[in-house]
Task: structure prediction
Amino acid sequence: MIVLASDHAGYLLKEEIKKFFNKENIIAIDVGCYSREQLDDYPDFAKAGNQKVLEDPRNVGIYICGTGIGMSIVANRNPKIRAALCHDTSSAALARAHNDANVLCLAGRSISPRKAIKIVKVFLTTDFEGGRHARRLKKI
Ligand code: RB5
Result:
């Protein structure tokens, strides 16, 4: 399952990603927020996202705030979460292939929906390479 989370600054980009998922018949769960006007706090949504992601090891999260930084800081406080803030498709591919990232963080205020969707596609379709990278993950 794909878990979507954002604060108000990531809300619009989250809606664009949801539109893309609907078009492609990809099922995702949205843990909020539900309005761009809301005066909300990104840690609440990162924590809610983590809770859902950790329900099943096959789950992945996509968390969006203004910069993606706050979401990634909070998400990574949980030792079972490997959240990667990606601004391009190559970092999204490496976040999966080398880091086995289970959460993608995006900057709602600085990337276009078109670019974000490209990044999401790569993140969702790239497998972890294992091998030496698995050894490194064990040391985290
Ligand atoms: C909200 O204004 C903004 O600080 C938040 O979305 C995020 O960018 C924090 O890292």
User: Anything to note?
Assistant: The helical segments are 11-23, 42-53, 69-75, 89-97, 113-125, 132-138. The beta strands are 2-6, 28-30, 60-65, 83-85, 103-107. The chain has a mean pLDDT of 97. The chain has one domain: 2-138.
